[in-house]
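Quick one: structure for this chain?
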Amino acid sequence: MVKTTGRPVAVKLQAAADGVNSPRKEKILQVAISMFAERGFADVKIRDIATEAGAEAPTIYHYFGNKESLYRFACSACFERASKYALVGISQDRPVEQRLYLYVLHMFESYVNDVDFSKLMQRQLLECSPEELSTHVHKSVSQNFKALENAIVAFRPKKMAARITVALYSLIYGATRLSPLWNSAPELKFAAAATPGELAQFALTLVLPEIEWKAVDRQCRKAEAAKDKIRD
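Got it. Here's what it folds into:
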């Protein structure tokens, strides 16, 4: 497996299907996300989620309606979690190359550290209907895609920036989801052993080779250290 950084990925789930946020509902939603990610929609029963979450089945039906609705809500919440985490860096008041680097770094961290997100995304790509996938893309990807594209426009023409954005998403998904393959071959284990930061630098070097991304990583770390010092 790809090495993790230990940096927390989770953004608090907004379990507000009925407009009311509660610890019980968040617990049910998190359990549902983990179980759907691990076993898929067909192999998970409402009573399994209820048992694991320490809730009653009628409570789950009250909050989410039915299993199909719970699954859709779980996917949306999980993808929104990763989406918000990716946007944290690119939305900051920093030089554009740092914002771009942090976005790609956070995406790699989500795929590496947030196992539920990574597995659920793969299940969605394999199992969802085009209509369902389009809904998730619209909710969770479109805003991020545009933010990443806008950052790349600082270095490339707009038409090329869109293609580079697609290439980066492809590199992020491919590099992380193929890590079991790299890990199975001794001569390729260096790829599986890479950290999210190393993967981000490698991917960005492929598409924007004129920038020294290792130096950008150091600048980001220095800025974060300065913020931590101020907070302390």
